[in-house]
Amino acid sequence: MNIVGISGSATGGSSTDLLISAALEGATASHVATHLFRLNERQVIPCQACGISPEPDYCFFHDGMDDLYKAMAKSEGIILGSPIYFDSVSAQTKLFIDRTNCLRPAEFSDKSVQKFKEPRFKGKKGGIVLVAGDYGKFESALRVMHAFFIWAGIEIVFEILYRSKSLNVGEVKDDTAKLDEAREAGMKLREAIGKY
After folding, report:
1. 9 and 40 in contact (C-beta within 8 Å)?
2. N or C: which end of the chain has fewer CB within 10 A?
3. Taking the CA of residue 36 as centre, how many other CA atoms within 13 Å lie in the half-sphere pointing to its CB?
4. DSSP assignment of 63-111
5. Integer Cα distance of 119 and 106 in angstroms
6. How far apart are CA 29 and CA 41, in angstroms?
7. 44-85 pLDDT, tens per residue?
């Protein structure tokens, strides 16, 4: 079993990173391989709205998304996390989400209607991690995250929402209850996949 975590935080060691890592830790077992990808460490161009399907590939453009597509395709579980900026996901997270547009390619046989193929990741399970500041709101970012998971065909197993009280990087490291919640969510994800 493979479970990947994808962090849209600009800062290494952030609360977003730590919560995803805790969820991956909770999902870990002898038969489970986990990996954390940090979007900020990748060179990724924005979606170019090509207007034709790249199938069997996931995209016509080859960049920092290539191994992410492969890792997600190989995985049974996907955890996506982001800090909240201006009531939405980070730029890194939005760029990633836009580049997953062809996880559900359009059917171009009749351009007079909008028709899409089955989601390419249908049957996978996933989880959401969102970190907001003291006054941040989760609703808009949750809508964006839900849209990604629905589009990709990934069933959402858990949501972890954390409200940071300071500007300290990785503040959640002192919140053992929230880290335990993330570990339990990871375990729940592994059990929901239920392959073993």
Report:
1. yes
2. C
3. 20
4. STTHHHHHHHHH-SEEEEEEEEETTEE-HHHHHHHHHTGGGS-B-TT-T
5. 10
6. 27
7. 999 999 878 888 899 999 999 999 999 999 999 999 999 999
Neighbours of 29 (CB within 10 A): 12
CA 87, CA 85: separation in Å to the nearest integer?
Answer: 5
Model confidence pLDDT, tens digit, residues 2-19: 999 999 999 999 999 999
Hey, is 94 helix, strand or coil?
A: helix
Count of residues for the chain?
A: 196
Phi/psi for 89 (5° steps) reads -75, 165
Q: Which residue bears the tokens 């579980």?
A: 77
The angle subtended at Cα 190 by Cα 91 and Cα 31, nearest 5°, is 110
- For 2-193, CATH number out of 1.10.10.60, 3.40.30.10, 3.40.50.360, 3.40.1080.10 equals 3.40.50.360
3-state helix, strand and coil shares in percent for the chain, rounded to the nearest 5: 35, 20, 40
The CB-side HSE value for 55 (13 A sphere, CA atoms) comes to: 13
Residue 55 in tokens = 């199938």
66 in helix, strand or coil? helix
**How do the domains of the chain map onto residue ranges?**
2-193
Q: Are 151 and 117 in contact (CB under 8 A)?
A: no
